[in-house]
Design a protein that fits this description.
Helices cover about 0% and strands about 60% of the residues. By secondary structure, the chain is mainly β. It has a 20-stranded antiparallel beta sheet that branches. It starts with a strand and ends in a 10-residue tail after the last helix.
């Protein structure tokens, strides 16, 4: 894959242009394979005032395929051109209030987000790396309901949402933010992952409610609810502590009725002595009544020269099989080489908030 992104403003105007170009080659011994070139230029007008904003955007998506191993009735050369128009707009209201004795400003921010993409039959296009996004908070303001480049979803829809924030008058810190929103569909959604995918006919999406807060230094709290009529479909609540001494702790509870999932996650990366840190992670499924992943380890070494790490991991890769037990060791010589397992990747996948660039 080779990918290029470019963005620029046109002089001193409020117009800006973006260009995303991507070439990917997919290989397989027996299935369809080949190259895909995807080009998406867009133009945006960003009109901002202290009391509101309007942001229209026009995108033209061109994709071409050069394929091999195609079926007898399938073309080896496919082109697709689909336009998308979106209009994002919002208002800002504020008032003086207080947050546990601190002078704060509360905002009220109604927002409307409209998207139109015409329907284009894409059943003859192979699906290399594209999936359907799980509906959630990010879906409210997303132009395409599909990930990847092999499908562009038809859309004629309007998102209506409102956000309120509590901001410190002295520092500008956001103590609390809450958003409530829903999508209204004006037409059925006909484009699916395959020719047999059902047409989506709902007139409205589930309601989405999210909150995020920083109630105290180094503490973060966020959560969300998704419900349709009176039925709760999804919910999650997460708290995280992360300070400037590389101490990290997180806890999450999540419920998904459609997927029959209910689980908790606890993670920690914690210094316990001079150049020594402990690592722990627990992922327990209440719906399956068993641990999906458990991890414990120790890390010792200086920040300038070397570091040794050892992990024990009990994890599941297939619900129909027993858990796997893994042992990981790594010796890192700073600025020279790593010997052993890629433990950073394991920690990034398991511990929420862990990023190898921030925990060197």
């Amino acid at each position: 894959q080779v990918r290029m992104n470019s963005s620029r403003y046109f002089g001193e105007t409020d117009f800006s242009g973006d260009l995303v170009a991507d070439y990917s080659y997919f290989d397989h011994d027996s299935l369809v394979k080949g190259g895909r070139f995807d080009l998406a230029p867009s133009v945006t007008y960003d009109w901002n005032r202290s009391w509101g904003f309007v942001k229209p955007k026009a995108t033209l998506r061109y994709t071409t395929y050069d394929l091999e191993n195609t079926a007898a009735n399938q073309s080896s050369s496919i082109d697709r051109t689909v336009p998308t128009f979106s209009l994002d707009s919002g208002l800002f209201f504020d008032r003086d209030t207080n947050w546990f004795g601190q002078q704060t400003t509360q905002t009220l921010e109604p927002r409307l987000f409209y998207v139109y993409t015409p329907e284009e039959n894409q059943d003859d296009i192979p699906r290399f790396d594209t999936g359907l996004y799980t509906f959630g908070p990010n879906s409210l303001f997303r132009e395409n309901r599909f990930s990847g480049s092999d499908r562009i979803g038809d859309a004629n829809q309007l998102t209506a949402a409102v956000t309120t924030r509590f901001l410190s008058d002295q520092t500008g810190q956001q103590y609390l933010a809450m958003t409530l929103g829903q999508i209204f569909y004006f037409e059925d959604r006909e484009v699916g992952l395959s020719a047999t995918s059902p047409i989506e006919t709902e007139n409205t999406s589930p309601y989405i409610f999210t909150l995020s807060s920083k109630p105290a230094p180094f503490w973060y709290l966020d959560g969300g609810l998704q419900w349709d009529d009176s039925d709760m479909e999804k919910s999650y609540l997460r708290t995280r502590y992360e300070d400037d001494q590389q101490r990290l702790f997180s806890a999450r509870y999540q419920f998904d009725d459609a997927a029959n999932q209910e689980f908790t996650k606890f993670s920690a990366y914690w210094p316990v002595g001079y150049n020594t840190r402990l690592v722990g992670h627990s992922y327990y499924s209440w719906s399956e009544e068993r641990a999906i992943e458990s991890l414990a380890g120790i890390e010792h070494g200086s920040s300038c020269c070397w570091r040794f790490r050892f992990l024990v991991r009990d994890y599941q890769t297939d619900t129909s099989q027993d858990n796997n037990l893994g042992f990981y060791m790594q010796l890192e010589l700073r600025g020279f080489a790593n010997i052993g397992d890629d433990i950073d990747s394991v920690l990034e996948d398991s511990i929420e908030g862990f990023n190898r660039r921030n925990y060197q």
